[in-house]
Design brief:
Elements (H helix, E strand, L loop, with lengths): L1 H13 L4 E3 L7 E6 L4 E6 L2 E6 L2 E6 L2 H4 L2 E9 L2 E8 L7 E8 L4 E8 L5 E4 L25 E7 L5 E7 L14 E5 L22 E6 L1 E2 L1
Antiparallel strand pairs: 1-2, 2-5, 3-4, 6-7, 6-14, 6-15, 7-8, 8-12, 9-11, 9-13, 13-14
Bound molecules: 2-acetamido-2-deoxy-beta-D-glucopyranose (2 copies), copper (II) ion (CU) and zinc ion.
Zinc ion binds next to loops.
InterPro entries: SOD-like_Cu/Zn_dom_sf (IPR036423), SOD_Cu/Zn_/chaperone (IPR024134), SOD_Cu/Zn_BS (IPR018152), SOD_Cu_Zn_dom (IPR001424)
Pfam family, one: Sod_Cu
Catalytic activity: 2 superoxide + 2 H(+) = H2O2 + O2
Length: 218
């Protein structure tokens, strides 16, 4: 475990800036080493342990690919809302999520990105939390969390919530892009995995789904 960690730090030090590589004489790509994805649990020879996740990302280096990416979400249900997502430096930079939601009950509400944009049965058919690295549910600042875990939004006494989140795991490009998936707002508070309830480690025990919307390329 310790050896692995120091190895990973060494790699990061060597590749702090993206390296230019050429694949099959195509246009130049940059090789990024993304360490923002945190830690995962591994089960080996019956022992449960943890390991850092280090993603090697090969991404085109042309201006179009490297320009900021944006997406938007219209939230419907018993609530109404609009969200904007912006990633300034794809593929590994952070994503900024802003927006305004109305029609909530006052107080905290679980706020997540779920697996699919399938709304054929409303918010129910969007699946579970988006979790490409197969981890347990957590808080946005936790190393071990679902990519879709964005914690809670808090509505005031008029039932309005402002969203202003900067996240390092949510991306709008590449195989783990959230574009085409769905935002879901819950009836109750997300306990961030700490509630001790049987669903705390999968959903944060946040209750029913009061609204949702598909993440669309802007
Ligand atoms: C790409 O961006 C750089 C830096 O902003 C600029 O100097 C260059 O002219 C751009 N190239 C194209 C093809 O737009
Ligand atoms: C969408 O969700 C419905 C209801 O859960 C399901 O029957 C259907 O197979 C889903 N569609 C796709 C393309 O997965
Ligand atoms: Cu959720
Ligand atoms: Zn989760």
């Amino acid at each position: 475990m310790r050896t692995f960690l120091s190895f990973s730090l060494l790699v990061v030090a060597c590749y702090a800036a993206p390296q230019t590589v050429y694949v099959n004489n195509q246009s130049p790509s940059h090789l990024y080493i993304n360490t923002a994805s945190g830690t995962t649990q591994i089960l080996k020879e019956g022992l449960r342990s943890t390991s850092d996740i280090i993603q090697l990302v090969l991404y085109p280096s042309d201006n179009e690919s490297n320009s900021p990416k944006e997406a938007s979400v219209l939230l419907m249900g018993s609530i109404r809302g609009f969200l904007k997502l912006r990633q300034d430096q794809p593929p590994v930079g952070k994503t900024h999520i802003t927006g305004h939601i109305t029609g909530l009950t006052p107080g905290p509400h679980g706020f997540h990105i779920h697996q699919t944009g399938n709304l054929t049965e409303g918010c129910k058919s969007t699946g579970g939390h988006y979790n490409p690295f197969e981890r347990v549910h957590g808080a946005p600042h936790d190393h071990v969390r679902h990519v879709g875990d964005l914690g809670n939004i808090v509505a005031n006494e008029r039932g309005e919530a402002l969203v202003d989140i900067t996240d390092h795991q949510v991306t709008l490009v590449g195989p783990n892009s959230v574009v085409g998936r769905a935002f879901v707002v819950h009836e109750g508070r997300d306990d961030l995995g700490q509630g001790g309830h049987e669903t705390s480690k999968t959903t944060g025990n946040a209750g029913g789904r009061v609204g949702c919307g598909v993440i669309a390329r802007a």
